[in-house]
Amino acid sequence: MRRRIIVCDGADVARFWSRIGAGEGEELTWVPREHESRARPPGFRALPGGMSADAIAKLETSHGDGFALASDEGPWIRAAIRAIDEAAPGAPVLVLSDRLGDDEVPDRACLRRSGLASMLRDDVDAQFDHLENLQRVVELRDLLDPREKVGILLQPDPDPDGIACGYALRALLGRKRTTAPLISFGEVKRPENHALVGALGIEVRTVTPDELEEFDGLVLVDVQPNVFGEPPPARVLSIYAVIDHHPERGGYDAVIKDIRVSYGATATILTEYLRAARIEISPKLATGLLYGIKSDTQLLGRDTTQRDMMSFAFLHAHHSPALLRRIERPALPMDGMRALGRALSRATVRDGVHVLALGRVREDVIPQVADMALQAEGAEWAVAAGIVASDIVFSVRNVGYVRAAGDVVRDVVEGLGVGGGHRSMAKGIIPLKAFRERYGRATREQIESALFDAFMRAIHRERS
Ligand SMILES: [Mn+2]
Q1: Ordered mean pLDDT values, 10 residues apiece, the chain (464 residues)
Q2: Which residue, 119, 120, 125, 176, is CA-closest to 152?
Q3: CATH of the domain at 106
Q4: Backbone angles phi and psi of 13, in degrees to 5
Q5: Which residues are within 5 Å of ligand 1 (an ion), measured at CB?
Q6: What is the CA(329)–ligand 1 centre distance, in A?
Q7: Per the domain annotation, does 159 fall within a domain?
């Protein structure tokens, strides 16, 4: 747009707008009302004689110029649009009004409506949200700054949301790994959790409940004490702070509880903290938090709020795509590639089901193969299975409009092993011993055909 001509109805609106001022290429004009003095607000050009085509014509507009009309009076707005259509036919018009009903504004192809005061209103709300987050940050710092060693306790085998949040909290507190280590009662095991700590170079120390004595401050992130056993270790029942998005549980004391159950990820809370405190977010930290939100919400699909979307968008602008790729597509070992090659050379998609049996592989190869196997033409289901230690581990993916993967896997492993998952992703584990007892030998061919049959039965089973 070449010129943006802002037309204010009367001195009050013009004075209001004079606080906003004129941006690049903007011209401020006002139409004095009948009884108003002609003293014009500074920076404004008056359009005397009321709203008319003549007044608009004096602006000497050309094609590409646009108008904003600020008024709460229907007749004035309609007269202004008529004048513009006469003097500058088809020019784009923005109507800024807080009180006009839709039927008071004429139907016009290139017209857009917005509020005037309400535009600021939205911003005031957003600023108060930031302020509330800042207050939390200040409280956390006041509480934790005097402590020599703060333990950031995550759930056992912490997931990407927990790990990224622990890392973010440390940045927020301006601490190092020595004075605020990430700790957990169970080591990092699952491949996606490993991939994150590896790519970000984060250390999560495994501790026993007794070792908690070395910390003079404890913060629980993405977890509450009930997760640590029944009953939980006494030391975790009286802590400084809990920051979490899981349903609130009782039975413990925390000085600060920030539990936001509607949020899809704790990483959204930490992102809001960091933004409110204006902490610089490194690409590494942004990538971790982004991946935390992505994996907890299955890419903004499940239990997602506007807040998660906003944090995701903010983090997306700051993250490192190369680092994210390394987390999501960890390097496959060569023997895993060869196992994949052998499996692919015999693979077929039958009745929409694509089963790949890999033999003995590193566990993180399996989900990656499952992702890829779903791309096969005609596949609605992909199952990648491999032998890990003394178990058959399999990852399942589906196209999303079929029976839920978690339900199907629970049926498949019934009486044999464990498994579960979500709508379109799931995982199952069958001990080799249990498999042999039911199916005989655990060769690749046998695993492939047994899983194929079991999946066919489970997929077509009626929901009970
Ligand atoms: Mn979480």
Answers
A1: 91 91 92 80 86 89 92 94 93 94 91 89 89 97 97 95 97 96 93 87 95 96 94 94 96 96 97 96 97 90 88 97 90 88 90 95 90 93 96 94 92 94 91 95 94 94 64
A2: 176
A3: 3.40.50.720
A4: -65, -40
A5: 161, 222, 266, 296
A6: 21
A7: yes
